[in-house]
Amino acid sequence: MNDSKLMNLAANNIRILAASMVEKAKSGHPGGAMGGADFINVLYSEFLQYDPANPTWVGRDRFFLDPGHMAPMLYSQLALIGKFTLDELAQLRQWGSPTTGHPEFEIARGIENTSGPLGQGHSYAVGAAIAAKFLAAHTGNPTFEKETIYAYISDGGVQEEISQGSARIAGVLGLDNLIMFYDSNDIQLSTETKEVMNEDTAAKYKALGWEVFEINGNDAEQIREAIKKAQAVKGKPALIIGKCIMGKGAIKADGTSYEANCKTHGAPLGGDAYVNTIKNLGGDPENPFQIFPEVKELYAKRAEELKKIAADRYAEEKAWAAANPDKAAAQAEWFSGKAPKIDWSKCVQKDNDATRSASAACLGVLAEQVPNMICASADLSNSDKTDGFLKKTKAFTKGDFSGAFFQAGVAELTMACCCIGMALHGGVIPACGTFFVFSDYMKPAVRMAALMELPVKFIWTHDAFRVGEDGPTHEPVEQEAQIRLMEKLKNHHGKNSTLVLRPADAKETTEAWAMAMENTDSPTALILSRQNINNLPEGNDYSQAKKGGYVVAGSDANPDVILVASGSEVSTLVAGAELLRKDGKKVAIVSVPSEGLFRNQSKEYQQSVLPAGVKKFGLTAGLPVNLIGLVPESEGKIWGLESFGFSAPYKVLDEKLGFTAENVYKQVNSMFQ
Ligand SMILES: Cc1ncc(C[n+]2csc(CCOP(=O)(O)OP(=O)(O)O)c2C)c(N)n1
Ligand SMILES: [Mg+2]
Fold this sequence. Notes:
The chain is α/β, with parallel strands linked by helices. It contains 25 helices and 17 strands.
């Protein structure tokens, strides 16, 4: 146990560094970082278990920082353990600098994740805790039993609705490997917290099945005791509510206290206030980027302890691996992040099936062949057909993670963020399903998965107005256009940030799932039909779906018109083509499950599929803009939905809205007049 004087010195060191980073950058958030310094210092100097020499050690504890704006606190802490240099701290938020605002993840540098969008980090931590429980159950490796997920949250995250979903799930599943610290400093960006929040947070979390501890969050001894107690909790997650002082130690230019002041939330302390504060904390305002010798010693001592801790854990892991060589080999494969080997010949598709059912067939194969896959649903498993997976396994329950299905309840954003947390943890492949219209509830997570290049699979069924009887609230119209924007947006590696696939029939769905599983460095979205779809013509070469767009079997050479669509509209085009051919027209049909992918192919290939100058007709059950890149106005026409949907059986809607072979015939003919 370290003495309190030393712990306070170390926390002040973090405060000095964090405030100085922000001061130098002339931008950032000093107040919260200064308030949370005591907690992070106690955690890193006495509790967090990791191997300084092996940052990717699978059994390490994880620290998730939901308020990413407190990154200067994390960077300063990481500087104390040698993951960042003091010079790097001085480069906060600059172009090319490793110290960015709201860092996503960089395991080698000790950053598991910080969330920019407040609240998402709660669910990332829950997802990581689920992943650890899953790995403990599925490998038997004792190291995963010992792993703890620490999450740091703040007022903003508690206010975000996702915190409720995260807390509910952690409570229901009894995630006792999750310890969350709530930096309750009564201050947020523009107001004091009491102006917008009067809940009893402790009572709320207790009601959701958590063990709750309330402490002074700036008192090292109380923090230490609380973490110890939280670690001892069995069968429940633990929340430590720490009353912290925003801007602890800050002094204004006039020498009065600058503590507990909103102004320190998101702006440098500034000028004399900065100088006074650094002096008050025992630092040198002229040369603030320093680590006190005593603090260096504290962390050198901890590094020695960690060596021993890691060595003991490695010994346990080694003994387990020797006794379980197959499981050890599997675990290594799972953490490699490589695409699993799948024998898709085992996937038997029914003719003329709905693509959601075809997806169920794929999921059944995945449940059997990919032992580290976790599939989730937001209370729609029998509708979104993730039950194809569930039927081959069982859902997680408190104390039993031997299954592989995650029943998220009706909480799409929470579910998606839990999947992100699982992916951040590593070792598992997460997928989650719901209705496409509710992708609206998940978009903030899709964006983060895309930015972080995490291979989460999003399964969205009921892809169009053909859920008609449920009425317009359930009918996606603009959702495809929204999600396809994510395949136009590139990630930092130059790749389409999301792979978006809307397969045209059952067999193309198998192809789409194969592509989703091969895709290990970006999220994949699968957009699937509720209703049955006629198979594409006999002899179709489905392997071409890998190019994003291709000419469907039975197409005529040198066509008079090319018909273009994705998803179920392709089969409507096939039916329309039959009518057009009766008039002697030569017709080609192009299925484009992913325009983003198609545009990554060679110009020659794109030209061969959609030659310029040939008339084109596009059909989409979404906004016409879905096809605008494939069917230029100068070359043809797009038939799509221009308004919200209507309430009626889907066949009636098909008729009324013009999604029939007859309307294809009529519209195409109108282009020849
Ligand atoms: C989803 C989301 N909405 C808004 C913001 C902008 N924002 C950043 S910090 C913050 C206030 C957070 O207050 P608190 O969590 O108490 O942090 P503290 O002020 O104590 O540092 C806001 C609104 C955000 N990062 N994420
Ligand atoms: Mg706050």
